[in-house]
């Protein structure tokens, strides 16, 4: 397809190459200004603002059914969803739970640093967390699965899902099935910037939370940015992005098949096939029309917009080393290594949130049922953040305990450093003044 973006990396200057690294949420300034009045309205008006924004922005009427999903709505959801889909949701949740159980830290550990002096960590769950489940370009029970399971495993006592309602004021039935199977019973019918504001400030119906996690549109990302001093906004998770890296051992048609996985999320997604093989690149381009013929019109429209635009297509490199360098510079949310020997490439990749190895591990498996979390940092944040995990739902406290036998040596060294830094109260607290109190 001649209209698919083909980027010959060796022919690009530094500015052109840098433009390939840009994501849809790279400049949030326009969105930030648009979300500010929405946030203020929710803060000032509470439920009334949520009901109004549901009508104006989500085209949904939540007056009759209320802003919170009822137990009856949960029950009806299981009747609405096909039995085999319920089975697959359960299968995915089981695998996600098995994976995340291994991440759960021990409640407390202590190490004897010096004889009689102990130090360690204690982990306790965050008291309240909101889970954002998007709805705009489809229904995503998988996001419910990925966010709910680690929160439940961590033992968060107050967990709530916020998700945009459908036009009749209900919530996607599969999302409710996933929530109940994962162990979450509170779901609020609000999305976008107004949902972020609702869980940040609280309303008559929505309880405020200490943290919000989950992917969202630039509107959601912008709202999180504005409210970051009010609520912990977790890892940066914006529109979907992926790199499919292919060496010359795989068919380009397979690479094209997987290139469409994240590209079909929406026109604000980013998706590149990165290869040093022109044969693979040309085969991928030739295969795309056939793959598109098996997709729905909407998903063809979304993926075509990505692959013909500025944030997608084929990146042809001069060598494997150039491919590795581009991948590390891009720091993708999802990375597939399509190769018959994927582990030969793994050691060269240091900047990717998710790395899926070999032709039998497409992004689809990881998005739904493999087990690792599919809520991942976007927009190059994989350089400092990892996937959502149990660790995102607990906080760590340092613990120290010093015995009377160990105290004198530690006090001597601490006293010297306190004096050097000019902190007299620090110095006094480990001086003979303390010794007199302890002796008494």
TrEMBL record:
Keywords assigned by UniProt, alphabetized: Metal-binding, Oxidoreductase, Zinc
GO biological process: L-histidine biosynthetic process
Gene Ontology CC terms: cytosol
Cofactor list: Zn(2+)
EC numbers, comma separated: 1.1.1.23
Classification via InterPro entries: Ald_DH/histidinol_DH, Histidinol_DH_CS, Histidinol_DH_monofunct, Hstdl_DH
PROSITE patterns noted in UniProt: HISOL_DEHYDROGENASE
GO molecular function: histidinol dehydrogenase activity; metal ion binding; NAD binding
Location of the active site: 333 (proton acceptor), 334 (proton acceptor)
Transit peptide among keywords: no
Signal peptide range: none
Source superkingdom: Bacteria
Similarity comment: Belongs to the histidinol dehydrogenase family.
Protein name, UniProt field: Histidinol dehydrogenase
């Amino acid at each position: 397809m001649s209209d698919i973006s083909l980027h010959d990396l060796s022919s690009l200057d530094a500015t052109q190459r840098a433009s390939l690294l840009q994501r849809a949420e790279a400049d949030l300034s326009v969105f930030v200004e648009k979300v500010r009045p929405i946030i203020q309205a929710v803060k000032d008006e509470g439920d009334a603002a949520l009901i109004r924004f549901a009508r104006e922005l989500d085209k949904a009427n939540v007056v009759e059914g209320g802003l919170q999903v009822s137990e009856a709505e949960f029950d009806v959801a299981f009747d609405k969803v096909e039995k085999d889909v319920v089975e697959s949701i359960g299968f995915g949740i089981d695998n996600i739970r098995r994976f995340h159980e291994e991440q759960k830290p021990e409640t407390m550990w202590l190490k004897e640093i010096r004889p009689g002096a102990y130090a360690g960590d204690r982990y306790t769950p965050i008291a309240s967390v909101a889970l954002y489940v998007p709805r705009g370009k489809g229904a995503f029970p998988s996001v419910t699965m990925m966010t709910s399971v680690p929160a439940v495993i961590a033992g968060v006592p107050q967990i709530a899902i916020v998700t945009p309602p459908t036009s009749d004021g209900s919530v996607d039935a599969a999302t409710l099935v996933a929530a109940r199977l994962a162990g979450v019973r509170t779901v609020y019918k609000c999305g976008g910037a107004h949902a972020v504001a609702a869980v940040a400030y609280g309303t008559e119906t929505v309880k405020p939370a200490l943290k919000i996690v989950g992917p969202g549109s630039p509107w959601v990302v912008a709202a999180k940015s504005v409210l970051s001093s009010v609520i912990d906004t977790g890892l940066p998770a914006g529109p979907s992005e992926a790199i499919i890296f292919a060496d010359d051992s795989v068919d380009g048609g397979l690479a094209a098949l997987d290139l469409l996985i994240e590209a079909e999320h929406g026109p604000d997604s980013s998706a590149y096939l990165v290869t040093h093989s022109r044969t693979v690149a040309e085969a991928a381009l030739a295969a795309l029309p056939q793959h598109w013929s098996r997709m729905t019109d909407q998903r063809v429209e979304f993926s075509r917009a990505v692959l013909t635009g500025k944030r997608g297509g084929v990146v042809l490199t001069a060598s494997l080393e150039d491919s590795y360098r581009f991948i590390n510079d891009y720091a993708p949310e999802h990375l597939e290594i399509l190769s018959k020997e994927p582990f030969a490439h793994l050691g060269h990749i240091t900047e990717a949130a998710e790395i899926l190895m070999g032709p039998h591990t497409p992004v689809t498996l990881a998005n739904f049922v493999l087990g690792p979390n599919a809520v991942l940092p976007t927009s190059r944040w994989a350089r400092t953040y990892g996937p959502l995990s149990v660790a995102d739902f607990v906080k760590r406290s340092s613990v120290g305990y010093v015995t009377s036998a160990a105290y004198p040596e530690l006090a001597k060294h601490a006293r010297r450093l306190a004096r050097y830094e000019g902190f007299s109260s620090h110095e006094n607290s480990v001086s003979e003044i303390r010794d007199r109190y302890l002796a008494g």
